[in-house]
Amino acid sequence: MYIECILNPGKEPRLYLNTTQPFFDSNTLPQDIFARGAMATITGTAGTDILTPDSLFDKFRCRWIPYYQGTIAVQQGNTYTLDVSYQGKTYTAQTTISSPKVEIDSILYVAAFYDLFGGHDGVQVFFTDATGTENFYRFQMNRMIDNTIHHAHVFGTLPNTCAAPDELFPVIDLGRTIYNDNGAD
User: Fold this and answer.
1) Could you tell me which residues come within 8 angstroms of residue 8 by beta carbon, excluding any fewer than 6 positions away?
2) By CB count within 10 A, which of 59, 99, 116, 130 is most buried?
3) CA distance 34 to 58
4) What's CA 60's distance to the chain center, in Å?
5) pLDDT digits (tens, 9 = 90+) for 121-165
6) Closest CA to 142 of 2, 3, 8
7) Of 159, 138, 137, nearest to 148 (Cα)?
8) From CA 157, how far away is CA 26, in angstroms rounded?
């Protein structure tokens, strides 16, 4: 089971709930591995939010992305409990939205840098860390792209056919790494 629940203050909770598959399994698309029929709730100060199946069409990857969506906006300072029941098993997690929002000081685009994975371009984000508090940071970039962008894993060989030639559409790039400032204020 793969469980990722994203809680952002002022927004409704979103839960990505997927079954795990063997490495060479043919079921690889989000709609193939989505855990259908789960019961998911988030309980907080405002009550219990029953999350229901929903989806959005990802024009970059030309596929539907299913998830469970809540209806009660998350509030800063509150504690939330996630309960997921699926195929006779129950999973529970709890968190408190206690970290203050961090304002970005500046952003710098880097056209070329190299690491052990080769050459890349990228974005550097500069912000002032709140001292004396252990914080965790995860990068999210919201951007508009057109259909000239190719899928990264088959760069240059699989053009995007889901968007019209001049159409711009939103893409959310959520960082895979979470950084913390423990011992590095």
Assistant:
1) 74
2) 59
3) 15
4) 15
5) 888 888 888 788 788 888 888 888 877 766 555 555 566 677 777
6) 8
7) 159
8) 21
* Tokens of residue 131, six digits: 């001292």
Cα 50 to Cα 35: distance, rounded to the nearest angstrom: 16
Sign of CA dihedral 145, 148, 153, 158: positive
Tokens of 160: 């995007």
Give 122's strand partners: 110
The string of pLDDT tens digits covering residues 91-131 is 999 999 987 778 889 999 888 888 888 887 888 888 888 78
H helices of the chain, where? 30-33
Among the listed residues 166, 96, 167, 105, the one whose alpha carbon sits nearest the alpha carbon of residue 130: 105
> What's the Rg (C-alpha) of the chain?
19
pTM (two decimals) = 0.76
CA distance 32 to 15: 16
Local structure of 31: helix, strand or coil: helix
Q: Are 61 and 38 a contacting pair, CB within 8 Å?
A: no
